Amino acid sequence: MLKPQSTATRGLINLDGLWRFALDAADNPQPWTRRLPGRLEAAVPASYNDLFTDAAIRDHIGWVWYQREVEVPLGWAGERIVVRLDSATHEGRVYVGDALVAEHVGGYTPFAADITEHVTPGERFRLTVGVSNVLTNETIPPGKVAVGMSGKESLTYLHDFYNYAGLARSVWLCSVPEVSVDDVTIVTRVDGGTGLVDYSVDLTGEGEVSVVLRDEEGEVVASAEGASGTLTVDAVHLWQPGAAYLYELEIEALADGDTRDIYRLPVGVRTVEVKGAEFLINGEPFYFTGFGKHEDTAVRGKGHDDAYLVHDFQLMEWIGANSFRTSHYPYAEEVYEFADRHGIVVIDETAAVGLNNEVAAGLTGQQAPPTFSDEACNDASQAALAQHVRELIARDKNHPSVVMWCLTNETASNDPASRAYFEPIVELARELDPTRPLTYAAVMFANPDNDNLADLFDVICLNRYYGWYVTPGDLGTAENFLERELRMWADKYGKPLMMTEYGADTMSGMHSVWDQPWTEEYQDDLLATYHRVFDRIPEFVGEQVWNFADFQTSIGIHRVDGNKKGVFTRDRRPKSVARTLRKRWSEIGTTKPAEG
């Protein structure tokens, strides 16, 4: 789905701001039919959970309602009028007046509705959006609603981050011509010093297509007629990690010789491939340094914030990081656009986190029910994940910063039944985008002897916590365990290996002269232990620390005010290890360290 934009042929109104807000209530069964009761207002974009002091709102399970009045510009007469939500976590329903115009399941990808027949240019209408935070075994990610002895509902889930909900990204009102650009697919190749830009354009309505490619100075470097073709760029400027260069593709839709629509798309010319045990960008070996991240800030929850976007990227530049993973869901589109412009490499991940009942068993000590079964991850769950993959790739396929798709995080890949569940998902992802490598992040329960998925993927990503959850406080044993396991993966598969999670919870300001978990010194020593091992493994292609910053998790005794594995605190102050990483990563750049 193309992101809406304002051009000479398209109108765009941002509907962010303060909306009326109410919880779903039995005495108001159709809240979209009238003004929402009460005086609450909620910010959009933002998760609603931390905005209010009422625990009943933070702990609410089910639907909440947002509402505002919207005026359609008089000049939009004769155009198609569309309302677009960048996300609604985890399920959304959109009403224009009393009419249901859109429904969507999946909390991190956009959806839209053509509302032309429901509105009148020059007049106002009531826009109501319902959002549900309910998770089931058939949603991605999964969860479960239970009723306790007191009769109170509770929502349990297996992902270790807070289940923030609401309208965390922007809402838009758009005008689109009857003949318009509906979708664009860009694939780039390089032949010597020449760039090749394959393009394909889908139109709504009957028309012709003309395209022009301009460089960063606005000079035309290539043009073509037709809905698909290849543009040739002599002396091409490549998009490279740390040195982004973006061309602009202007697409013109015409009918009867007249311009009907214009859409512009940034284009980065680059190649990505896996060759043997190397990960190549533009034919050169690339070594990932950076983080797993989260969309998480105080008060806003998962609400997108441009100020934090800029500051987070500044911190990544300062520390020498060249990449990050969108753990554990697709991020706001503005994040990818910023990465495109600033040369940061992205591993783009689905929301398939928590597909592993053994995680819950490890915390409770109880026998885990099978993860892949009729009662847990079943055919409906698989279908939901397939749709999520379709929407993710459709949204992010044209971003040069995205170099790899990560299809799941810490699933039960040691369960033989995982093969039948994920093999069709892998095949679908390759069909939708044959140009990017695929990966998954393997949980500690999965090892080279019992994992059932590694041969399906191009890169093996591992989440490992030796020295923390395993052998805590004993870094010598942790080093031995880690090196032995990495060599086993390398010997069995001969594929690129990287670490997508490693780290230790650390309380900022806590210190000790001993190897004491939770201290800043222990976090530093643990990472140094891992780095020694990484540098000894020839097949190793990257390190992404868990996590960029401390983040909120569900309430419980296993976390004290959230996960503290951040290199930065939740308010983005550096812990001691930040300067250690800065030294290492600044020296590495994008090249694998010499073997020790």
TrEMBL record:
Gene3D superfamilies: Galactose-binding domain-like, Glycosidases, Immunoglobulins
Pfam entry (one): Glyco_hydro_2_C
Domain Glycoside hydrolase family 2 immunoglobulin-like beta-sandwich: start-end pairs: 180-270
Enzyme class: hydrolase
Domain called Glycosyl hydrolases family 2 sugar binding: residue spans: 14-177
GO-annotated molecular function: beta-glucuronidase activity
Every Glycoside hydrolase family 2 catalytic domain range: 272-588
Keywords for the protein's UniProt record, in alphabetical order: Glycosidase, Hydrolase
Domain of life of the native organism: Bacteria
EC number from the UniProt entry: 3.2.1.31
PROSITE patterns: GLYCOSYL_HYDROL_F2_1
Family as reported in the entry's similarity comment: Belongs to the glycosyl hydrolase 2 family.
Protein name: Beta-glucuronidase
Lineage, top ranks: Bacteria, Bacillati, Actinomycetota, Actinomycetes, Micrococcales
